[in-house]
Amino acid sequence: MFCLTPNATDLLKQRLIEDKITPQDLNEMDSEQRHGYFASFLGEPTATKLNEMVEGKLLLKNQQQGLINGLKQVFGEKHPALRDAVSKVMRMEKLLKPEEEDKFLADLAAHKLGSTVTMDETAKIYDLAKAASDSKAILEKDPLNKEKIIDYGNKYLDLVDYADSLKPKANPFASFSNWWNLPKSALTSVLHFSAPGVQGWGMATTGRFWQAFGKMFRYFGNPLEDSEAYRDLNAYIVGHPDYKFAKDGKLGLTHLGDKLNMREEAIQSSLLEHVPGLGKIVTASNRAFGGFLNDLRFNRFIDLLNAARLHGEDVSIGSKVVKDIANTVNDFTGRGQLGENDRFASAQVLANNVFFAPRKMIATMNMFNPVRYIDPNTSPTARIGAARQLVGSLIATYSMLQLAQMAGAKVNLDPRSQDFAKIKIGKTDFNITGGNSTYIRTLAQIATNTKITTGGRKRTLGKGYDAATRFDVAIGFMRGKLSPSASVIVDGLKGKDMVGNKFSVENEAYNKFVPIFTKSFIDLVRNDRDNGLAYVGSLAAALGVEMHTKEPRHK
């Protein structure tokens, strides 16, 4: 913490007395004038530090007290993130009157932003902050007007984006996690609109699911340029009056940026976005993926929040109701919390290095956890919402399986079977459960000590030559959840992949780098070429329906 030396303190007191400078006089000076006055007798370095202290502390007693409190709260050492800093710059601005523009605290802003901010850049930040503040004042008169929400949100994002551009950027090519998760992003980032069929499965029977699905391709937009629809979605979210509750409840809203822990789990590398030509398509695909989920999560959260209000529940900052609702939405959209209140969120990058989708794993287990539906301490609105979502998704899935069976496809509903809940057409099968059936199958096999093979043979676990045990079933389940890079290491150590094919670099590269939808289609053409119905069904694979065509095992 900066402190004046005794000699400098005495000199300051003496000059203030001699020059008859009062605290009010210091207040009326703009930042540059005040800095120049101190520098005239204290020297440049001391003057800069003193000016920061005066602007950040001594003037708290005057009319700008709330302004400086906002700055200190955000720009303090415990909250170094630029985004948080910028949001408080906006809050700081709304307390200023137009005629006080020249008093903008330039020295403090430059110091706290962690980079040199010129007077022109300071003025630009102020102009953007003022535009956002003016737009917010208009919105407050009509807080549910969607156009005004988006207008305010866009002006706020203009401020955030500009201030973010002033921050020195880290080199993405220097990040280990970016390289390690490159295969994962390669599998899911090229024309792969899988969010509805995987993360969104638990919300499939809600109106918000279909609204978000209808706008997903608008978020993809034109790969050669930014998507206005995606920008407006983000603006709507941050501009909405209830956005503060979404943040407080830790709703799983994500964005495409340098911070990998703020991205969706399937796109934990940004390297492909920097590849000339291909990068545009990857970015557009990621917009569609994240846009669908943000749209679904936020609007469903608002619906449940309003329902809780109508039922008289405590909807306030810090309330358990808000957190329960956010948890419900997160779990049913594949964004489970890492620890209570997401206290291990900072470890997400590490978790993603080991597993393909750790948050999705946690979300699925929470979604099927019976305790959440009967716990009296959980918000009734959250419990009812979760029950409706789960029952609706199960009924919809069962109905589709029955329709497929009536149409001539093979469907196995025995949870012990490797083909459980799959629609089998020839050599090709489709999993429409968002991958959730594997959890039920694993638990059923372990609980009954029985496994039914793809060929229909019933086997007792642990019996016979080289027979799998309950432990093997559990390990096989976990192995299937590894990230591509981690899976390569395990395959190499094991000497064969998950389906028993002999380990080879060519095979690993094909399975770990070729986009999932593309690989599924190639396997169909290779191994089930004449299956016309499977070609029709393959279109669903791009939307997250898992498609697998049985291939010959390579010894």
What does this structure look like?
Helix content is 57%, strand content 4%. The chain is mainly alpha-helical. The chain folds into 3 domains: 6-165, no CATH class; 172-352 and 373-382, no CATH class; 391-549, no CATH class. Strands 1-2-3-6 form a 4-stranded antiparallel β-sheet. The protein is elongated.
List the helices and strands and how they pair.
Elements: H1 6-18, H2 23-28, H3 31-42, H4 44-56, H5 65-75, H6 82-93, H7 106-112, H8 119-140, H9 146-165, H10 176-180, H11 182-188, H12 207-220, H13 228-239, H14 243-248, H15 278-310, H16 320-331, H17 348-354, H18 358-367, H19 371-374, H20 380-406, E1 410-411, E2 422-425, E3 428-431, H21 437-448, E4 450-452, E5 458-460, H22 470-479, H23 484-494, H24 505-513, H25 516-527, H26 532-538, E6 546-549
Antiparallel strand pairs: 1-2, 2-3, 3-6, 4-5
Helix pairs in contact: 3-4, 5-6, 6-8, 6-9, 8-9, 9-13, 12-13, 12-15, 13-15, 15-16, 15-20, 16-20, 21-22
